[in-house]
Design goal:
- By secondary structure, the protein is of the alpha+beta class.
- It has 2 domains: 92 residues, DNA polymerase, domain 1 (Orthogonal Bundle), CATH 1.10.150; 112 residues, Cytidine Deaminase, domain 2 (3-Layer(aba) Sandwich), CATH 3.40.140.10.
- A hairpin with a 2-residue loop joins strand 4 and strand 5.
- It has a 5-stranded mixed β-sheet, sandwiched between helices.
- Helix 2 crosses helix 3 and helix 8 crosses helix 9.
- The longest helix is centred in the middle third of the chain and has 20 residues.
Amino acid sequence: MSISNPGYNVTIKEMPLELRPRERLIALGAETLPTSELLAIIIGSGNKEDSAIALAYRLLSLPGGLSQLATASVEEIQEIRGIGPAKACQVKAALELAKRLAALGGESRPVIRSPQDIAALVLEEMRSLDREHFKTLALNTKNQVLAIETVSIGSLNSSIVHPREVFKNPIKRSAAAIVLVHNHPSGDPTPSSEDVAVTKRLIEAGKILGVEVLDHLVTGNKGYISLREKNLM
């Protein structure tokens, strides 16, 4: 792999804000960034001669690319110009985490069989939030959890919780179904008429997209209410 990306040696601070890898990750999600930019974020900073992105390209220019980098030792990573012990350890640690995650496989994923299973995953965190957070749990065909993601923060209404935002990441993950969760900072988990209306709107959108909405949990500081159990969806 040749280093042919124009401007690859411009420092990250010299880039327009919207083009910086870290800012793009926050705004668009990690899955949208190329491998070189993810690696640049892990490296953290460049040196007097090379930017973090330039160093990332150099790491990826190994004959075996990312696969070779994954099996390289810290000493071998340090042999790449511009990579010292600290950066080599950062890269190696990130790759080791990826390896361990891959080794876990699908069996380690939580399975959703009931509202209690949903609550076990989110209730403790949601209790401490002082604003409404709307989250989705993306599930595969076995109802295993693929991801738990925050869709919006603020008062729940149809303009904020748009189907486009709700289903975007589950579709990227090839999810078969989703579970909706949001909290009431007041502590009372009783669903509002707006909660019910938003849920029904998302169910209809899910039918069009081929992603089933299995349940919507509303949480409070004393527990939760399942709209499915209450026959509100």
